[in-house]
Amino acid sequence: MTAIALTIAGSDSGGGAGIQADLKTFSALGVYGASVITALTAQNTIGVQGIHDVPPDFVLRQMESVLSDLSVNAIKIGMLSVPATIEAVAEGLYRHFSGPVVFDPVMVAASGDPLLNETAIGTLKAHLLPRADLLTPNLHEAARLLGADIAMSEASMAEQGKALLAMGPKAVLMKGGHGEGPEAVDLLLIGETTHRFAAPRIPSRNSHGTGCTLSSAIAAGLAKGLPLVEAVGEAKTYIHAAIAAADRLAIGHGHGPTHHFHAFW
Q1: Please, is 156 exposed, middle or buried when counting C-beta atoms within 10 Å of its C-beta (0-12, 13-18, 19+)?
Q2: How do residues 33-78 score in pLDDT, each as one tens digit?
Q3: Is the dihedral of CA 236, 188, 112, 81 positive or negative?
Q4: Alpha carbon distance 262, 265 (integer Å)
Q5: CA angle at 39 for the pair 36 and 41, rounded to the nearest 5°
Q6: What CA–CA distance (Å, rounded) separates 22 from 216?
Q7: pTM beyond 0.70, yes or no
């Protein structure tokens, strides 16, 4: 049986994040990738120059086309910039999919450019968080979802992760890549249990698309039938190696991408 994962996200014209990063990750990890595009971005390593939202009814039509034909094993959700698109995706999940969903609440690009309409946050909480099997916010996204200060310690990361669990997702992965210290620590909260994943922090400006890549790597593991904790562990190993190899690439003049195919070229 062929493992299949679907990404529902925005398109990064520069190729480092969004559906481009997701499909590269799926391929690198031996999973067939399909895609539903929620928005087009004019984007490169320097920043986001424009966003064109796909009409919500067409987002839903893409989901119906893929899910009525392909036996999708896992879905990764990324950029959803407006409330109507969030509602369309939630409807598509409710009507057509019962498998695992990894939701990466993409709000801001690595360049600092906003990717989520401010009015969409409430809709996101109401319609998608309760459907997520795993929510994967970075420290800034978690703080924004909670209306809180950015977590500055593992204890506060765990506290915010528990608060996010109360909003409905089955599990929360608090990503510490934007934190400080010699280690990049991620905390996976499932019920009352917390799993700690740590790796040496890599000093590199080529970190564009790391959040997209990690969440899609987890979805790839789930599509292959891995338990959640194992899928997160393997994804953490993959993203660490992709960041470590990123400086082997020479892409653009700003924040370059991770090296999705570091094991192959």
Answers
A1: middle
A2: 999 999 999 999 998 899 999 999 999 999 999 999 999 999 999 9
A3: positive
A4: 6
A5: 125
A6: 5
A7: yes
If DSSP codes are grouped into helix, strand and coil, which group holds residue 87? helix
Tokens representing residue 246 in the block: 């990123």
State the pairing for strand pair 32-43/4-12: parallel
Q: What is the pLDDT of residues 125-159, one digit of tens each?
A: 999 999 999 999 999 999 989 999 999 999 999 99
Lookup: tokens for 115: 């990717």
Q: What angle do CA 115, 251, 76 make, to 5 degrees?
A: 40
- Share in percent of the chain as helix, strand, coil (round to 5): 40, 25, 40
Continuous segment of H or E residues that includes residue 171: strand 171-174
Note whether 136 and 103 are within 8 A (CB): yes
Contact between 118 and 82 under an 8 Å Cβ cutoff? The reply is: no
Termini Cα distance of the chain:
27
Q: Which residues contact 55 (CB under 8 A, 6 or more apart)?
A: none
H/E segment holding residue 96: helix 83-96
* Digit-coded pLDDT (tens) for 92-118: 999 999 999 999 998 766 555 666 767
C-alpha pair distances (Å), 55 with each of 58, 96, 136, 234? 5, 19, 26, 35
Give me the phi and psi of 185, to 5 degrees please: -110, 130
Structural domains of the chain sorted by starting position, each given as residue range(s) with its CATH number in brackets:
4-248 (3.40.1190.20)
What are the two backbone dihedrals, phi and then psi, of residue 197, each rounded to the nearest 5 degrees?
-120, 125
The label of the residue with tokens 């990466």 reads 104
